[in-house]
Automatic annotation (TrEMBL):
InterPro entries: Multihaem_cyt_sf, Multiheme_Cytochr_ET. Keywords: Signal. This is Cytochrome c-552/4 domain-containing protein. Gene3D superfamilies: Flavocytochrome C3, Chain A. PANTHER family: C-TYPE POLYHEME CYTOCHROME OMCC, DISSIMILATORY SULFITE REDUCTASE SIRA. It comes from Olivibacter jilunii. Transmembrane segments: none annotated.
């Protein structure tokens, strides 16, 4: 009997040791690769060692700031968010409250706190709007209110019920594929044959990091750490050597609207890959931009694109601020259109046009799908986005 007990204890000890060893191996592997995406990916801090100037500029870039996790209570201090109360009706309100442990959205019905959630993540670079999310177990959920930056105003999240508070919209992998660099997910069977998606929280890489656009860099980093005097980039796709379609596809993987789907996650789309041959890819069909843009299709439908060698990088400096003054963008237009005439414009308008080609030839369009409902009002602030179809309007 004693011998049997010892054997069971020994067996349990061996099993525990095996599990511990397995965990240690996994942790060691992650530490060696430095990235949850695998051994091919370098530690995310590696780029700064050789590309410090670019890295420092990129910290202020809209891509890098397209999402961020809020790890500290003061993480939202620089965002200019004010405490406020959003009114659905006399009985139903949402309070935005800054507390000691972070930023909360609180549902009040007849003055009673019926539900509250702390903001865990924010989407948006701060140019147009912020969207907020909270963790519900291992699911990421959208919060009831958005914040419009130019208007300094809290509004009902687009597509949410107009007369009641809603905490029930899940943020899925397809959202994060364009608003983050990686997250590991799994499908969980729920009641009534439904399926839900859960995330491994520690796997989430917020924002668009260097390797999301430049591809896995472990070999590149290892080589140049071992050969510090070698200045020619090794084991890294040279963006300048890509074809124009490959360059545009690299941007288009996130700027082609929501219909784009791949057999494998777009997290692993790399420079040189293509999206045009995917059956799910939707080409330009004459529509205006709406919500998620379709900038790639709109640009490719433009005469400027068809009759030149321009690509996204012709106008956008991807490592710095993506929204310079319109006069700066216009200088790019004038490189080809130096002798353009505007016979219908008077002298004053013609003078203004020299510094702003954009508002006429790439106008801001109003969304036909969504608007932002204001507090205590049926009025909706329209969602606006600049079209990337360059044309005479």
């Amino acid at each position: 009997m004693l011998t049997g007990q010892l054997n069971r204890k020994q067996l349990i000890a061996i099993l525990f040791l095996g599990v511990s060893l397995l965990i240690a191996i996994v942790q060691c592997t992650e530490q060696e690769s430095g990235d949850v995406r695998g051994k091919k990916y370098a530690n995310r801090t590696s780029c700064v060692q050789c590309h410090n100037d670019i890295a420092q500029n990129y910290l202020h870039n809209a891509h890098f700031n397209t999402s961020k996790e809020l790890h500290t209570p003061s993480a939202t201090d620089s965002m200019g968010l004010e405490e406020n109360v959003y009114v659905f009706n006399e009985k139903t309100k949402v309070g935005v409250e800054k507390r000691a442990d972070g930023l909360y959205q609180v549902a009040y019905v007849n003055g009673e706190n019926v539900k509250e959630e702390r903001t865990a993540m924010v989407f948006g670079a701060g140019k147009s709007a912020y969207t907020f999310a909270f963790w519900y177990g291992n699911r990421l959920m959208q919060m009831p209110l958005n914040y419009l930056v130019p208007e300094h105003e809290w509004v009902n999240s687009p597509g949410f019920p107009t007369e009641q508070i809603y905490f029930g919209r899940a943020i899925i992998t397809r959202c994060l594929e364009c608003h983050s660099s990686f997250v590991q997910s799994k499908i969980i069977a729920s009641a009534n044959f439904q399926q839900e998606e859960e995330f491994l929280k520690n796997s989430l890489i917020a924002g668009i990091d260097c390797q999301r656009c430049h591809g896995p860099a472990a070999e590149h980093v290892q080589f140049h750490q071992e050969h510090p005097n070698e200045k020619e980039a090794k084991y890294m796709v040279k963006y300048q050597e890509l074809s124009r379609s490959q360059k545009v596809d690299m941007c288009g993987v996130c700027h082609s609207g929501t219909n784009l789907k791949m057999l494998n996650s777009t997290f692993f789309f790399k420079p040189g890959d293509t999206i045009n041959n995917l059956p799910e890819y939707t080409s330009y069909t004459g529509e205006d931009p709406d919500v998620h843009g379709k900038q790639k299709q709109l640009l490719m439908a433009s005469k400027c694109y068809k009759l030149s060698n321009m690509d996204c990088g012709s106008c956008h400096q991807t490592h710095t601020n993506l929204s310079p003054d319109l006069a700066v963008y216009s200088q790019t237009c004038l490189q080809c259109h130096q002798k353009i005439k505007h016979p219908s414009l008077d002298e004053k308008a013609l003078h203004l046009a020299k510094d702003n080609c954009i508002d006429c030839h790439m106008p801001v369009k109003v969304s036909k799908s969504i608007g932002f409902q204001r507090s205590a009002s049926k009025e909706k602030i329209p969602y606006k986005q600049r079209t990337h179809r360059i044309a005479v309007y």
